[in-house]
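Hi everyone,

Forwarding the result from last night's run.
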Amino acid sequence: MKAVCWHGANDVRVETVPEPKILNPRDAILKVSSTTICGSDLHLYDGYIPSMQPGDILGHEFMGEIVEIGSEVKQLKKGDRVAVSSMIGCGHCFFCNQQMWSLCDNSNPNAWMQEKLFGFGTSGIYGYSHLFGGYAGGDAEYVRVPFADFGALKLPQDIPDEKLLPITDAFPTGYMGADLCDIQPGDIVAVWGCGPVGQFAMRSAYLLGAERVIGIDRFPYRLQMASDFAKAETINYEEVDAGEALKEMTGGRGPDACIDAVGMEAHGIGPEGFYDEVKQTVRLETDRPHVLRQMMLACRKGGTLSMMGVYAGFVDKIPMGAFMNKGLTLKTGQMHGQKSEVYAEIAGARFKGRSRSLPRVHASSTPSRSEARLRAVQAQTRQLRQGLTQTLI
């Protein structure tokens, strides 16, 4: 089969590789119908994510048709049309049972590699280095889906791929970014980065109750989309100082919540940007944290920072004094794409209420101590069902 393979920084090739096979009875084989590039794939392309090996197949946002299943796959059958979450969860460990799927204890066979860097291992991710499991990605004709019952979302047949593909990563990442902000009615939310995740974060912020949303970027076409699609006010940080502009737009108080939808390759301006470029180039820091710094300074006192852009290792010159003394809260994480009571139900809204097409996670995946949260989510879902069809379809 044909697949997109990594061979080094700025060296990606389409090659002929062996087709995947069932390795575990809980596996399925997917014939890929659509796949797309995530902004975080650029970190692989630019050579900033360690443990990539020549020939690794890229891609973690894909969908298609189930063509083969293992003997222990119960929720899927051949011919099912599915979207696959980029995060791989086993469905049974402590973290999956807490709906924190990207922290799964069992899906990353190379978790030991992460322990030195992160302290603990996290879940596997398709096509995203051996640090995250070494799984072959979905930029291929076929892909093996481990723990298939807990990673593949069944889809209706009558909606085009391009309207469904964001379910695999971009939409739940953007939604989670907004959800982590604990948005209250009347809040002002600023979003750094107007790419796909940023666009979904902006729309989700409105759906969760924000009164105003402000998108920050430097590319005119992205800013125009933020205005047209996300209905956001915009700031071009190459034309004005974003921090000062946010103060002016919020009466001097600052936004209530700030979302980082950029991550480790943020573009800074002036000496700070040059400093980060040099340090990253010579590997004295792995990530360029310009957005993180700016959020800590721009957010109002007592506000919330949500970090959904990917970071890989170490950063420098973080204003921890501002973070601590302003009483800020930082929430972050890889998205939990299988989170049944949020993302699957929201996906149901995309299908104009046809949630009968969605597979259900076992009851054990929803602990009793989460019931209050689930009731709140159900209330959110009712609101989202009214608005999300227009947003995404």
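The domain at 171-332 is CATH 3.40.50.720 (Rossmann fold).

Cheers,
N.
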